[in-house]
Write a structure and sequence with these properties.
The complex is a heterodimer of chains A (about 400) and B (about 110). Chain A has about 400 residues and is an alpha/beta fold. Chain A has helices at about 10-20, 55-65, 125-135, 150-160, 180-195, 195-210, 215-220, 285-290, 330-345, 350-365, 375-390; strands at about 1-5, 25-30, 45, 50-55, 70, 75-85, 85-90, 95-100, 105-110, 120-125, 140-145, 165-170, 225-230, 230-245, 250-255, 270, 275, 280-285, 295-300, 305, 320. The radius of gyration of chain A is 22 Å and the shape is elongated. In chain B, the strands form three sheets. Chain B has a five-stranded mixed sheet, with helices on one face. Chain B has about 110 residues and is mainly β. Chain B has a single domain (about 20-95), classed as 2Fe-2S iron-sulphur cluster binding domain, sarcosine oxidase, alpha subunit, N-terminal domain (Ubiquitin-like (UB roll), Roll), CATH 3.10.20.440. The chains are: A alpha/beta (about 400), B mainly beta (about 110). Bound molecules: flavin-adenine dinucleotide and FE2/S2 (inorganic) cluster (FES). FE2/S2 (inorganic) cluster binds near residues 61 and 83 of chain B.
Amino acid sequence: MYDTIIIGAGPAGLSAARILQHSQKVLIIDEYFHPGGRLLGQLYEEEKGSWWNGLKMADELYEDTKEKTEIKLSTSVYNVEFDETYTVYTTNGNFKSEHLIIATGAREKSTPLPGWDLPGVMTVGAAQVLTNFSRVKPGDKGVIVGVNPLSMVIGLELGYADIEVAKICLPQENLINSDTPREALNTLMSLGKSAPSKPLSLAAGIAETARPFHSTAVKLFPKNGVKAMGMPISIKEKIIRINGTEKVESVTVQKTDAAGTLIADTDRVIDCDFVCLSDGLAPLNEIASLLDLKHIYSEALGGYVPLHSEKMQTELPNLYVAGNITGIENAKIAIFQGELAAHQILNNEALSLNTLTKINNERKHAKVKFHKDLDDGKKMVQNFWSKLGKNPSQ
Amino acid sequence: MTERITYHKILGEIKHNPVPFNWNDQTLYGNAGESLTAALLANGIRTLRYHEKDGKPRGLYCNIGHCSECRCLINGVRNQRACMTPVRHGMSIEQQTELPHRIKGGR
Ligand SMILES: Cc1cc2nc3c(=O)[nH]c(=O)nc-3n(C[C@H](O)[C@H](O)[C@H](O)COP(=O)(O)OP(=O)(O)OC[C@H]3O[C@@H](n4cnc5c(N)ncnc54)[C@H](O)[C@@H]3O)c2cc1C
Ligand code: FES
């Protein structure tokens, strides 16, 4: 019997363990073979010359927890039950605990398009892990499909490893992604305000070329795209097909007008040996669903999130959530959320409030923001919580 | 072709500890502890399996355990996710292939 079991050894889970381990018997479970979750591939410049190195951060969190916390890696959780205590079913046996923290993070959304199943097509996150964690090139020359904060940051990361990105553009409209050139331009502009210094100058570069006077900006955006920070970005070209027989050989792109409508006879082929698909991130909420928690849909948070309080409580006693399962945000927020869940378990209201302040500050100044309406999404969840949340421990 | 990033502008050098493993009866070398998807890609191998139903080639997709596109026969166990399995000395990994279509007469 453990005092607390934590599912997920990403920044949220490890930072919760780091606090709890001093007074509790803690088990942390992760299905990957290396602790750190999605920190492992992260790399971006926060200020000039100062880098956010996720792998280093992951190793530090692991150093701080490996002595006092029991960490089971290469272990998948496939079921959880609640009957006064929690029973966690894993591929390495079943474990019981009084408290449970679900910190399973996020998954990538990606649009299938003709040719998506060819070897060499991958999510943009797959390319990130290969490049920054495994240090194996996903290929020599890639094309990125999807314009969003994650795809832009990872496009830059490929550049740091001298991997050529031949084109970043939109997919042909489909059920998952119907981004118009206008929306893509807005994404680029919003990156400019909040993102690390490199994308900032990138977006600024586009602003200069395209002049963002709303209605004319998209019209003025050059049909062949612009080159910013070494990345060829097109918001008025769409990928209509990925070509190849045994593996990716090229993509076919077609020009669009400012509204995103394809223009006939403008298609051309771009050679490449890998393609990254990217439609952003969604909270990984299966475990919370297994416990029958109510979920709330918020586009700003990335999808369905389990109903929770701003202090990470859920409808069930002694059950907490932390990190990207509560909405897509950067790893610093995930770390604070893990700490907050731990302070709640230890009934430390003073430190909880203190951590909540840190979260709100980081949200204001975040270098990487995934959605411009995040605050609205968070408010909506809190409204639902005050109406529907019923945590018996309160 | 794909290759290893031995020197990275920001992350610097990476240490290599090559270990042999078997891929479809062929001996390849991977960096000890890296994922099998990375080890195979570093050897220029993209096709990890042929689809059970239509026999089309498939490769890694998410590389973090979410999609199961990378399922292989690893140390004799079917449908193991190559991206979640670290390469170890002497390990065996094999491609899975199209399944027989018994009802349709083994098309
Ligand atoms: C591909 C990808 C790339 C990203 N890149 C960036 C970036 O560059 N910058 C940025 O700020 N943010 C990025 N993010 C957002 C990222 O989610 C957060 O930065 C942060 O890592 C979230 O922390 P977390 O602890 O909530 O979850 P994670 O870091 O995702 O950790 C969750 C852990 O839980 C484990 N897990 C999940 N389900 C189970 C289960 N059933 N059984 C066992 N273990 C399980 C996973 O293996 C994982 O290790 C990225 C996200 C993804 C998916
Ligand atoms: S590539 Fe998706 S599970 Fe391995």
